[in-house]
Amino acid sequence: MIMRCASHGARRHVQPYGKLGGKAWKKGRKSVSTVSKIVPFNSGSRIVETACRTLSVASHGLNALEAKFADRDFAAIFLRMVGMIMNVRGRLIVTGMGKSGIVARKMTATLTSTGTPALFMHPADAGHGDLGMVTPDDIVLMLSHSGESNELGPIIQYCKRFGIPLLGLTARAESTVASASDVCILLPAVREACPNELAPTTSTTVQMAFGDALAIALMEMRGFSADDFHKFHPNGRLGAQLLKVRDLMAAGDAVPRVCEDASLLDATIEMTRGRLGGTAVINQGGELIGAFTDGDLRRTVTGTQQLTEAVGRFMTVPPLSVGPDELASEALRLMHMHNITLLFVCEGGRLMGAVHMHDLLHAGVA
């Protein structure tokens, strides 16, 4: 960098300010820290005590929230809030600024995954067009610990102008959010775990817990089942745990089956065709009466038995089976418990299909 002196017009070279490799900069710079006193890492006990104190403060905040529900007025307001959300024709629009906004995003995700249609609206974007996502059929849930975030103003005005119900969640009864809300939940006044009592810690934990309580209350009121949950979580490990046996079983001609008077040779051929390591043994009515597996075949042929003998003499009875609407994870549990790799699927005693351990594991069931 070259600078020109104003008085004489002479030029002089100056070390660039941001060039840390320069000797002059290294020599003249002072270390800058964002903290005034750093605790050495060898003070392990103090660090652990701080962590435990944080958890203790958070625990007190959660206990205070739980105690709130014992108050009849608070419980009545909560029930009214739940009723309004249950009866809304549109969606629940959740909003909040700063840390409350982060909690609002998580709350939105929990609500949508448990049966309550919800959207997150960022207050900073609301006044720049995103208010258009709010329809007369919707309801707005506003989170603000202080109840005085300036960015929430346009949303409050919009709700009042178009008669959109506004639900508030704040800790201050005299705040703007509390006074503007049609229904307002007043969270307990809690101490922040931050030693300066400034950084939102306990307050956001309490907000998060209330959001979970609200979502689960709505979930139970809707009768939201595991089947419904699976519709919204088809992928990943969670989706695999909610799969049913009928989703993974082989059916129709893919299921090996023989009658009880079939020969061992016929049963062996059928097992080989099915590639499941076994065959079902059924009666004339199509009901499962036994199972004949690779293990049964090995035990049979090592004896003096002839392959022309009836398979019914050597099949495993009673056969272990599972219903088509059982969770796939339950089928896998039975396989592990009985040390088998194949389960036949029956409904009302009739053979419907077969499920192999490899299919369950390949689908991510655990």
TrEMBL record:
Alphabetized SUPFAM superfamilies for the sequence: CBS-domain pair, SIS domain
Keyword NADP attributed: no
Marked site: Catalytically relevant: 99, 151, 192, 233
UniProt feature coiled coil, ranges: none
Keyword flag Cell division: no
Binding site for Zn(2+): 122
GO molecular function: arabinose-5-phosphate isomerase activity; carbohydrate derivative binding; metal ion binding
UniProt domain CBS: residue ranges: 249-309, 315-366
Family membership noted in the UniProt record: Belongs to the SIS family. GutQ/KpsF subfamily.
PANTHER family tied to this protein: ARABINOSE 5-PHOSPHATE ISOMERASE KDSD, PTHR42745
Name by which UniProt lists this protein: KpsF/GutQ
Organism field: Sphingobium herbicidovorans (strain ATCC 700291 / DSM 11019 / CCUG 56400 / KCTC 2939 / LMG 18315 / NBRC 16415 / MH)
Source organism phylogeny: Bacteria, Pseudomonadati, Pseudomonadota, Alphaproteobacteria, Sphingomonadales
